[in-house]
Amino acid sequence: MLFLMDLLVMLLDVVYFILRSCVRIVLRPRTKPVDGELVLITGSGGGLGRLFALEFTRHGAEVVLWDINTKTNEETAKLVREQGGKAHTYTVDVTNPEEVYRMADQVRQDLGRDVSYLINNAGVVAGERLLDCADNMVERTLKTNCHALFWTVKAFLPQMKANNHGHIITIASVLGLFSTACVEDYCASKFAAVGFHESLAHELLTEENVDGVKTTLVCPYIVDTGMFDGCKIREEIELILAPLEPLYCVQQAMNAILIDQPLVCIPRLTYLPFLARALLPWESNVVTYRFMGSDKCMYPFIETMRKRVANGAVNAA
Ligand SMILES: NC(=O)C1=CN([C@@H]2O[C@H](COP(=O)(O)OP(=O)(O)OC[C@H]3O[C@@H](n4cnc5c(N)ncnc54)[C@H](OP(=O)(O)O)[C@@H]3O)[C@@H](O)[C@H]2O)C=CC1
Ligand SMILES: CC1=C(/C=C/C(C)=C/C=C/C(C)=C/C=O)C(C)(C)CCC1
Description:
Layout: H1 2-26, E1 38-42, H2 47-58, E2 62-67, H3 70-82, E3 87-91, H4 97-111, E4 117-120, H5 135-163, E5 166-171, H6 184-206, E6 213-220, H7 235-238, H8 246-258, E7 263-266, H9 271-279, H10 282-292, H11 299-310
Parallel strand pairs: 1-2, 1-4, 2-3, 4-5, 5-6, 6-7
Helix pairs in contact: 2-3, 2-8, 4-5, 5-6
The structure holds NADPH dihydro-nicotinamide-adenine-dinucleotide phosphate (NDP) and retinal.
């Protein structure tokens, strides 16, 4: 009897949450304030990380900027300060656990308070086909996009739990939900990031007295930051699925964060290939990939990366 009651309650809950999600697409819930919060962003020296810093500043938060590149990180801090915000920069390689723990202690010591928002944004891609890719480049992708999440969360979650207040945001990718050819290192690392994030979210939901610690998984499609320059699908399909403007992407992610949304795919259309991967036979997905030009979409990207390496614009190893 108890089982049947539980089953009924669960089914009603399932229907309630489906309806609530549909209603929320039209009627956006009220956003939570972040003024005065301490927001730590990894990979803040450029691209989305820099824009997150500026958006959180616009909402009144104080930002802690972690990047491996001191110069570009200082430039982000300058932009934040020009907006009237408070920024604190640290040069950190997030792939090194000792460095992450040491710098987390340093932040606490310097600022005298706890980080309440952690944006795990730092990310890299090898940009080479598997058989041409140096082992250390594969390792770099996995360490940056996946292992680093363990180190930063271990460094900041204990205080969030103790305060029953915090928010952990993982910038993953649609390539953590479905894959394509020639980005094995990246897809493996982003699928792992999604797995890590979801397991953490479940863990927090099973624990007592930590309902104030929220999680948001952000999965964007191609964003025009330069990271995936050259990546291209069939032109006709690109008309409805163009690469995202970085600011649009960050604003959509911010909306999700500020309403405590657990997952956001940007744009919404990319929920479809995610569903197709789960529901359709493998071969059906293969033929849609071919039709949409998404089977070879990374070929021109890899060419672009090769040219950059040849010009000395990026390091091959
Ligand atoms: N651009 C895209 O199409 C998409 C990107 N994403 C994800 O969004 C996130 C941001 O990407 P995007 O802004 O485009 O990338 P960028 O390359 O523009 O920015 C990434 C930043 O992270 C820094 N970084 C790299 N390695 C480390 C490290 N070990 N420790 C600390 N900082 C590091 C980089 O420094 P440096 O420049 O010196 O290497 C850079 O400043 C990434 O996780 C990416 O995977 C998701 C979907 C699509
Ligand atoms: C595979 C695939 C597609 C193309 C996806 C691409 C090109 C994603 C690129 C994502 C990037 C660069 C993410 C970075 O983190 C479509 C056309 C959506 C639909 C069919 C399946």
